[in-house]
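$ run holo --ligand "fe (ii) ion" --emit tokens
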Amino acid sequence: MLKFLQRKIRTPKNVTIAAQKMGFEFSDVPRQWAMNDPVVTHLMNALSLTFPDGERMFVDAVRACRDAVADPARQKEISGFIGQEAMHSLEHDSFNEMLCAQGYEAEARGGQKLAQVLIGRAQEHMNKKQMLAITAGLEHITAILAHRLLSDPALIAKIDPSVRNLWLWHAIEETEHKAVAYDLYQDVSGDYRLRVSTFLSATTFLLGYTGRYTWAFLKKDGLNRKPLTIAKGLWRLFGYDGLISGTIPDYIQYLRPGFHPWQQDDSYLIEEWREILSGQKTLEQKRAA
Ligand SMILES: [Fe+2]
Ligand SMILES: [Fe+2]
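-- output --
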């Protein structure tokens, strides 16, 4: 019954999942490009290190199971998902190269290598249902981070214009395809215990990984011994309505047996932010509205 109800919820009709090649070039990026804060910036830098291989892993997981879907409309969504994630990998490769050019070569290369090794091990030891469950769980995390960002124009304004469109574009597309891996998982398995256990383990890995590389970037800047700077950054992330703490109510939704990503219909955000991404409107006009 529960599965039947979940199956009735699908990606809204006003949402199109289609890949778009952006070809971002990054120049004159300040070292503290997010909220003018080194801790927030380096957390997002650390996340970016996971994206090229992480998104390729999502593509592999979805591709391995797509035969379970007969509906042409769903197959089109899956193709859109694969195309979008492939583009995210490429654009974040460029972003990570920019980090190397900024002087963080050891950190960026080391972080990408570790992500590659961890993902390789997971793919070696887990079956395709488990890999799809991990993908659905990590897609929930990217979707709630995207929602946090897109719901707060003041926050987007605090991302330096030299990199703003990359993060904006990625957040829009994560929202568009947020249910694709989840819906496929429901078709292929739907097992609740596997979904939740892989979600919690993936969260632990992601927190451990981003914590480690945020620290490595801070150390490179010599900021690891500046307790006040670190405390300020941690407050922005984990304090009242912080960047991460503000996502907790959405995070725990995934633990509900009847959860579906589109129970929170935030498709209105896609349309609004696409206007800004395409230059039809400025961020200032949006903030004034
Ligand atoms: Fe992505
Ligand atoms: Fe995604």
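-- notes --
The pocket of fe (ii) ion (ligand 1) is lined by residues 55, 85, 88, 170, 174 (CB under 6 Å).
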